Amino acid sequence: MIKHQLSFAKINILNDHIAEVIVNKGVDISLEMTEEYDDFLAKTFSSNFAVLVNKIHQYDLSFEAKLNVASHENLTAIAVITYDKESKEQVKNLATMREHDGWNLRIFDGLNLGWQDGLDWIQSELSA
Q: What is the top-level taxon of the source organism (predicted)?
């Protein structure tokens, strides 16, 4: 596993097609931060890839960030691991807001082995 530190998050490259994202605690993600993130992904992955968002910490996204995040053309699947009801609702609201983008997104419960279930799911989505 290769680890990278962005200005607001840690990215763990789990293999040639999967990145785990852990946003720092209390961050308010701005449009500029989503651009930093997208630039990093574009430089790291040249073909289809998936993201495992490990939502360990509470954080927020600006309205502009919500409209821009996860817009990469090669992004095949997004697994989000949540650890509380509030985080799960935030992800559902964002997915509803971006429904027209056709995200292939699933939410997993981190308190019930969700990390492994999420990883297994995105691996199956990448191989489909």
A: Bacteria
